[in-house]
Amino acid sequence: MISERCAGEKMKQNSSTKKLAGLVGRMKWLPLGVSVLFYSAQAFSAYEAIDSVLAIVEDGIVSQSELKSRMTTITARLNAQNTPLPPADVMRQRVLEQLILEQIQLQMADREGLRISDAQLAETMANIAGRSGYSLAEFEEALKSEGVSFLEAREQIRRELLISRVQQRRVGGRVRVTDSEVENYLQSSVGKNRTATEYLLGHILITVPEGAPDSVIEMKLAEVQAIADQIKSAADFQKMAVARSEGRNALDGGVIGWRKENELPSLASDVVPQLAVGQVSRPLKTASGFHLVSVLEKRGGQSQLVEQRKVRHILIKPSEIRTEQEAKAKIEDIYRKIQNGGAFAELAKSESEDPISGVSGGDLGWVSPGEMVPEFEQVMLQTKAGELSAPFRSEFGWHILEVQDQREKDLGEEIQASQAREVLQQRKYEIELQKWLLEIKGEAYIDIKS
């Protein structure tokens, strides 16, 4: 199974990465209320000369200014979403609980030596800016225009990432999904619908006037058949739709969107599943006229051809005893050795800090799209079979990779099982996360001041 192959340091995108993706996704509504995601600068300006302590949490505190700034942030967000605010005392209690839990988790991160490097943080901020349609400089100006400093935003993101990593470390190991659970999910109605084949449909309509004589009907049939013949002879379906179709989606190239099998139009429900991608149907007759349907793209289902690459890599990590620059210098030295004839596998065994692949000479096996973190996948896709990449950085550290081979393989069943496992893992993770948060709160020393 794909998910079973991606253990350890194989750079599989984990729930920490997904949480970050969710954070990035919430940036889409910028520039309206950029500061909603971050602590309000106005709240910070209200910081009193002597800031009162609301709660002692283990070795740290939650202050009055933190509570005020977070409540300002949440109020701004709810107002922007036109969501009614809870009573002030209820909001205060909820926000205080949130800050206490964050303080506990940030102290855990510190004790465990977890760090978010400046390079990782800069890359994350650039990604957030890009997803919001800004350059980094433009994003900084957008924040500033709403009273939020770029440094405040950076530190908020750093805290989010640290908390995410703590949760993944502590909660991720509690979650186990069995093969039988995956099979049961795939056989359920919910599972079947979620993993069903989806078709991107194209449609061409040649209308027939109501009550038209047989001669007109035959003429229209000949017209639609001629269009079908041109498409079969390599004419572009979407261009033909724009030029000839009388359907309401004609100016969109006849594209009517993605449809699962149980969502297919009735006239095409028996036809579409039999069509290959790019194939056009026979003329289909309804009261409105003659139709042609084509499957422009297909995804999901039990048959999915995937382009895979056989990859091996070497990983060098920055750490408490090795700076970012030293890690980069070391991977560059290994890169030069390989270029000068050094054996990749032997260097991976002796130098790589990926504990899973290192002992196997850096071998990651056959890798499918979406299996690796974006930085790794981008370099992998740009590297031809038999070639070695230059050193590059991911959230895990510095890498070099070699693509040994490429192939296409039908991974439909494996992908379905992997998707099902991911759904079940996320469900269990959320349940375990809530349990764990209650546990750490119950075990921590917390003194809430009256």
Task: Summarize the SSE layout with pairings.
Blueprint: H1 2-5, H2 15-25, H3 41-45, E1 53-57, E2 60-63, H4 64-80, H5 88-111, H6 118-131, H7 136-145, H8 150-172, H9 179-187, H10 189-194, E3 198-207, H11 214-232, H12 237-244, E4 255-260, E5 284-286, E6 289-299, E7 305-316, H13 324-339, H14 344-351, E8 363-367, H15 374-382, E9 387-388, E10 392-394, E11 397-410, H16 412-443, E12 446-448
Antiparallel strand pairs: 1-2, 1-12, 3-4, 3-6, 5-6, 7-8, 7-11, 9-11, 10-11
Helix pairs in contact: 2-8, 4-5, 5-8, 8-16, 9-16
Give a short synopsis of this structure.
This protein is about 50% helix and about 15% strand. The chain has about 450 residues and is of the alpha+beta class. Helix 2 runs antiparallel to helix 8 (about 150-170).
CATH level 1 class label of the largest domain: Mainly Alpha
The run of helices and strands is HHHEEHHHHHHHEHHEEEEHHEHEEEHE
Number of helices: 16
* Main sheet attributes: strand count, strand direction, barrel closure: 5 strands, antiparallel
Give the oligomeric state of the chains in this entry, treating copies of one chain as homo and distinct chains as hetero.
single chain
Beta content comes to 15-25%
Helix content: 40-55%
Taking Cα atoms only, what radius of gyration do you get, to the nearest Å? 28 Å
Class per helix and strand makeup: alpha+beta
CATH topology of the largest domain: Triger factor/SurA peptide-binding fold
Uncertain spans: 1-49
Q: Can you tell me the number of structural domains?
A: 3
CATH architectural label of the largest domain: Orthogonal Bundle
